Amino acid sequence: MPGQFRPEDNTAAADNRPRVQWLEVAPEWAGQRLDNFLLGRFRGIPKSVIYRVIRKGRVRVNRKRARPDYRIVAADQIRVPPLHVPEAGPEKAQPGARVQRRMTDAILYEDRDFLVVNKPCGIAVHGGSGIDFGLIETLRAARDDRYLELVHRLDRDTSGVILVARRRSALKALQDQFREKTTRKAYQVLVMGDWPDDLDRVDQPLRRTETPSGERMVRPDSREGRSAETRFRVLERFAGYTLLEAMPITGRTHQIRVHAALKGHPVAGDSKYMDDAALAAWRKIGGDRLMLHAHRLTLASPGEDGQKMTFEAPLEERFRKRLEQLRQRESG
């Protein structure tokens, strides 16, 4: 049974102190990321605690260290160390009626298996470090569903299509499609400069790193990075900017942002990968968001028919206004 545990010794089981647990992965859980599996199993434990014990190697899969993104396999034996819950601090804020209404209004489609949401820019997909709640916590507060889980993720400042599973079987079926690269994703992205017409593909391995201050970044790294490929197509040109369609073939963190910046055309409004002068120029014309939007997603229904389905998310108002402003500058 997933989540069934046996204490590592009998004395630990005799009191209420945290103790080592051994979990065996049942077939229906196979394919999940290790971090998501543990977060679902230990819902009362802060995410920071779960990630810390994985990062320090205290979580073992088949007696070996594992990364948070390791995909668990049926019959894997997972050793979980004693998990200490920090003393309760101030009670976290809960999503109010206004933010709940905003999130339910953003639902583009729903059936018995999943929801399709047009995630607003600036909303994290889930709560975490310094964030009381995100999209998933807000939806859980706003709806009566017994089960709601994120199928995939978007960066906090990226808007657009995101999937939320309403059944465990749907979660696994949809995540299998992402892992096997059978979904098709397309983003609209405004980049700095005049993007070359013949630059239609960037294939550059990427590696996640951490700055001395603790900020997480992604860097090109042909030796130690993970394979990453993005296709690009020019949609519209403006003075100093180009609107592109970006189609990530792989799904690495910050992939589109880093691939665009690598070619000298960072995403407008990207405070991580733009230089200070370019960011200041963007803000001078009123730029107030990251100009990256998950526009379209094609997948197979997780239901029995496996019907091909395509969902499109309209551009957010601030994104549309910036494009219209650039068009007016062209005509003026």
TrEMBL record:
Q: Does the keyword Isomerase apply?
A: yes
Ranges of biased composition (kind: Basic and acidic residues):
201-210, 216-226
In this chain, the stretch annotated as Disordered covers: 201-226
The reply to whether Isomerase figures as a keyword in the UniProt entry is yes
SMART domains hit by this protein? S4 (SM00363)
Q: What class of enzyme is it?
A: isomerase
**Gene Ontology molecular-function annotations:** 23S rRNA pseudouridine(955/2504/2580) synthase activity; RNA binding
Recorded family membership: Belongs to the pseudouridine synthase RluA family.
Q: This protein is called what?
A: Pseudouridine synthase
Specify the species: Halospina denitrificans
